[in-house]
Amino acid sequence: MISAIAFYLFALMTVFAAIMVITAKNPVHSVLFLILAFFNAAGLFVLLGAEFVAMILVIVYVGAVAVLFLFVVMMLDISFSELRQGALQYVPIGLVVGGILLAELIFIFVGWHIAPSAMDNRITPMDQTVQNTEALGRVLYTDYIFAFQVSGLILLVAMIGAIVLTHRRRPGVRRQKIADQNARRPQDVLDIQKVTPGKGI
Questions:
Q1: How far apart are CA 111 and CA 163, in angstroms?
Q2: Would you call 128 helix, strand, or coil by DSSP?
Q3: Nearest Cα residue to 42 out of 19, 67, 20, 17
Q4: DSSP-derived secondary structure letter, 195
């Protein structure tokens, strides 16, 4: 009974926060509602017994992504009134796309059935004392280690690509030249003067 109440509470709060993300007029409020949705989704994962996924959701998405969104929205001087101008012309297209996605979800839900061999393919640790996080780590770093490394490499390439695409060389900006600094000699930049006491230079 308590788990059912907690499930419906977390689910309703997640749906409410998701709706407020797209309907709030203030972008800062939208980011705050997004953080609330992440927290409630983490609560649903805890109820499912996936505490590791819930922890990753809070640490990565709430602690990094959502906070980054919040700082970007607060630091950038964006005129949101100008961005909203002409937004109504895209409402029919958005309704069509949303209707198609909703129809696909309904078809999937209606035609969903569990395969007979699904229970045989589920991941169950040999030792029942092994925790969920440990079992996930064993599978991830043994059976799927190649895919895990490839995904990390793809993220690295994407990060480098984003830096290269956004990097701009601006004229007139003084840049550091490491080679010139290492090749500099003390006699080129230092002049020793012998000063007579009481007379100055």
A1: 44
A2: coil
A3: 17
A4: P
Q: Is 126 within 8 Å of 135 (Cβ atoms)?
A: no
- pTM passes above 0.70: no
Pick the closest to residue 32 from 53, 18, 15 (CA basis).
18
> Structure tokens of 142?
């043994």
Please give the structure tokens belonging to residue 42: 């983490």
Long-range contacts of 37-40 (CB under 8 A, 24+ apart): 37/13, 38/62, 38/66, 40/10, 40/11, 40/13, 40/14
| Chain centroid, CA 51 distance in Å | 19
Residue showing tokens 């169950």: 124
pLDDT tens digit string along 120-177? 655 554 556 667 777 778 888 888 889 989 999 998 998 898 888 877 777 777 778 8
Q: What is the pLDDT of residues 20-65, one digit of tens each?
A: 988 887 777 888 888 899 899 999 988 887 888 888 888 888 877 7
Structure tokens at 27: 């972008």
Quote the CA–CA distance of 110 and 129 in Å, as a whole number.
37
Question: What does the alpha-carbon distance between residue 30 and residue 21 come to, in Å, rounded to a whole number?
Answer: 4
What six digits make up the tokens of 11? 């689910």
What per-residue string of b and e applies to 3-18 under the rule 16 or more CB within 10 Å gives b?
A: eeeeeeebeebbeebb
Phi, psi of 85 (to 5 degrees): -70, 130
**φ/ψ (deg, to 5) at 200:** 80, -170
